[in-house]
């Protein structure tokens, strides 16, 4: 498994992933070329503090991983804190998707998150914790996080990505291992 920065040439593939029903249900993203450029172009151009990374398995793109320090997105961090979530200084958050539905349900999501957390400790020395809110109704993503070793630390009402969802989110966390 490897990760590389999202590139402009990846945007059509990302649009196809975002349009796939199993992704669209939870990401609720516009998928026109203009919308994907609007939402992911700043990352491609290095204008975003967070990272959009293409997940590769045996050299084949299979998904997307977003990783960012919560301090770089203060409105989101403040929403978590206002909902009662403990967000330590140096907290990083993740979001992820597997684009091909045939690759879901076989442990790949767990491998992606496990590797993302491992790399967070190795690549981001200032990272103190990984904090991941997930809609309470997204049982598959909750299982991925649990199998990857994150623990459920809170339930919080947060603005859902998809307006059909209630605001309830389960919040998962992993703390940097002691040296």
Automatic annotation (TrEMBL):
Region (Disordered): 154-179
Superkingdom of the source species: Bacteria
Pfam families (alphabetical): Acetyltransf_8 (PF13523)
Keywords recorded for this protein, A-Z: Antibiotic resistance, Transferase
Gene3D superfamilies registered for this protein in UniProt: 3.40.630.30
Stretches with biased composition (Basic and acidic residues): 166-179
InterPro entries assigned: Acyl_CoA_acyltransferase, GNAT_dom
Gene Ontology biological-process annotations: response to antibiotic
Protein name per Swiss-Prot or TrEMBL: GNAT family N-acetyltransferase
Stretches assigned to the N-acetyltransferase domain: 1-177
């Amino acid at each position: 498994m490897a990760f590389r920065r999202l590139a402009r040439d990846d945007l059509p593939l990302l649009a196809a992933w975002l349009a796939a029903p199993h992704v669209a249900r939870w990401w609720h993203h516009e998928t026109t070329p203009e919308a994907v450029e609007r939402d992911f172009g700043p990352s491609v151009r290095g204008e975003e503090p967070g990272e959009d990374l293409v997940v590769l398995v045996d050299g084949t793109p299979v998904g997307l991983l977003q990783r960012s320090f919560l301090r770089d997105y203060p409105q989101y961090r403040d929403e978590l804190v206002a909902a009662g979530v403990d967000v330590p200084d140096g907290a990083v958050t993740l979001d992820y998707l597997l684009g091909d539905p045939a690759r879901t349900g076989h442990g790949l999501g767990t491998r992606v998150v496990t590797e993302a957390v491992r790399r967070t400790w190795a690549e981001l020395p200032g990272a103190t914790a990984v904090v991941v809110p997930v809609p309470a109704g997204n049982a598959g993503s909750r299982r991925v996080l649990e199998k990857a070793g994150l623990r459920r630390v809170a339930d919080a009402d947060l603005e859902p990505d998809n307006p059909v969802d209630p605001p309830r989110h389960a919040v998962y966390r992993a703390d940097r291992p002691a040296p």
